[in-house]
Amino acid sequence: MSDKYDVIVIGAGPGGYVAAIKAAQLGLKTACVESWTSEDGKSQVLGGTCLNVGCIPSKALLEVTHKFEEASHDFDGFGIQTSGVKIDVAKMMERKGGIVKQLTGGIAGLFKANGVTSIHGHGKLLAGRKVEVTDKDGKTSTYEADNVIIATGSKPIEIPPAPFDGEYIVDSEGALEFPEVPKRLGIIGAGVIGLELGSVWARLGAEVTVLEAQDTFLPAVDQQIAKDLLKQFQKQGLNIITGARMTGAEVKRKLVNVTYEDSKGKQEAKFDKLIVAVGRRPYTDGALAEDSGVSMDERGFIFVDDNCKTEAPGVWAVGDVVRGPMLAHKASEEGVVVAERIAGHKPQVNYDCIPNVIYTTPEVAWVGKTEEQVKADGEEYNVGTFPFAANGRAMAANAASGMVKIIADAKTDRILGFHVSGPQASEIVAQGVIAMEFGSSAEDLALTCFAHPTLSESVHEAALAVAGGAIHVANRRKKK
């Protein structure tokens, strides 16, 4: 039996590494187990999916390709003359790898600074809060803790009609590593990952077709905004087909032959590459012994209460392995709350105030309820919208598509939903998160002074519009 710890965290992604750092900061003897190994097989890699093959590398590619798109098509409108703009895919990938390496190395530095012990290997929870770790050579060691936090994350869902082959049919990880721009790219799933990856390769010249099984485009997004977004993406050249149920994919002569059914019947399409982005599932493979006392549902999610406690005493679970949205910041928030609770404090995660973002152009971000959800709840509400087309800063930046939309309770004026599509939506949504966290009314935002000229003025105007008092756009006439 090796050392005993106050806390052992299994998994060093955004939920796990944050929980480990916070626990150590609170004076708890903490270890974090992570199995991810570098390509040369020599060293441990921290940061999980988000840092290595998810949020960070995808944003690096989105930034580069957005700049390329602007330089190729939009600079002329600014009076900047360019010619012969080219993309060096190898250099773009090298830059992405450099950013990832810097950030993962940063976590190792934070572990050291905070006194977190890093254990390299595959962690498995045994009965009695013991953790068995198997290293790359197959050697096992057992550790004991007063508390164990499971933060093993998730992995892409593979569907029977299109099994991954790592070259022609790939998951989101493979889509971040294409050595050259595919001429024709197929994507299964018009969710966050599918749209972001589709945007990256479409900007570089790929002919992109996105097949979505659901009839509604982005059903989780407020539909006033989703319908506008669909038009924007179609203008950008993304061919998005909803109600398309995939039936098969076969690689022949270096092409992927896809068959699917839509409202018109059976269809066929040929692609150079096919990305399957239909969602993710909890990664608990080999992470729990049968007698660990931790229960899972039929989809592999670990059962936890509102504070991320499992049914086993002293065992917690956070992030993608538990209920709720599969978001890095949600996992981190849960990790902090669990560490605090282990230390005897009583914080909670406010699941009503977790923002969602899609990093396309325009960006899309929201917090709280959509208009459809508020309507379904039978609540009386008021809506205020303001288009970026009427915002001077957005016009100056040549980014005047989209809007800010605020939904407020008709009786109390409390903000129920805050939605943004347009420039810097991922940053602007934080204003809505803060407002809702403090129980703000739309009037509170309307009475706040915003700097001019800024994109954020659109938040001010949307808040004013809730009560029909927007200044820089005509207000809707209220029904008598």
From TrEMBL:
PROSITE patterns: PYRIDINE_REDOX_1. It is found in: Cytoplasm. It is an enzyme of class 1 (oxidoreductase). FAD binds at residues 59, 123, 152-154, 320, 326-329. Its cofactor is FAD. Belongs to the class-I pyridine nucleotide-disulfide oxidoreductase family. Homodimer. This is Dihydrolipoyl dehydrogenase. The gene is lpdA.
